[in-house]
Amino acid sequence: MTETHRYDVAISIAAAAEPTVPEAEKLRDGIENAARGVLEKDAEVVAELVTSRKVALHVETSHEIGSVEEAALSDAIQDVVVDSLEPGDGMTVGPLEAVEDDATPRP
Fold first, then answer.
1. Residue 10 parent element (H or E)
2. 84 Cβ contact partners less than 8 Å away, ≥ 6 residues apart
3. Where are the alpha helices (DSSP H) in the chain?
4. Long-range contacts for 39-42 (Cβ within 8 Å, ≥24 apart)?
5. Do residues 95 and 9 make contact, with C-beta atoms less than 8 angstroms apart?
6. What is the pLDDT of residues 36-60, one digit of tens each?
7. Quick one: which H or E segment has residue 60?
8. For residue 59, what are the contacts with CB-CB under 8 A and spacing of at least 6?
9. Measuring CA to CA, which of 18, 27, 92, 104 is 20 to 30 A from 81?
C-alpha cells in the first residue's frame, strides 16, 4: 500500500471590497488548478472556500513535498491571487502544513 502524505495551506485575501461569491469561487478554482499544475498527476488537490476571503487548500500525495516543490506551489498560488487583486489589496499564503494521519477526515 502506498504511503499517503497530507498537507493543508491557508490562503487569505485582504481586499478593500468584499469579493462576490462568483469572484471567490473563480479564485478557489484558480488556486486548485494552479496546485494541480505544480503537483501534477501524483496529487489529489481540493480547494475549499472557507469564506469569500479565505481558501483552504488540501493536498494528498504519495510522496513528501520538499522545499523546492513547496516554493513552486506557493508561487503558483500567489500568481493566481495577485491577478485577482486591486491596487492596495493584499494576501497571505500560509506555510504548507503536514496533516497528521489521525486527523479528522475531510468531508
1. strand 5-14
2. 13, 19, 23, 26, 27, 30
3. 21-39, 67-84
4. 39/65, 39/69, 39/73
5. yes
6. 999 977 789 999 999 989 999 999 9
7. strand 54-61
8. 6, 7, 8, 9, 35, 39, 43, 44, 45, 65, 96
9. 104
Q: How far, in Å, CA of 6 to CA of 23, rounded?
A: 28
CA 92 – CA 83 distance, rounded (Å): 14
Q: Please give the Cα distance from 28 to 31 (Å, whole number).
A: 5
| pLDDT value at 107 more than 50 | no
| C-alpha cell read off for 17 | 471590497
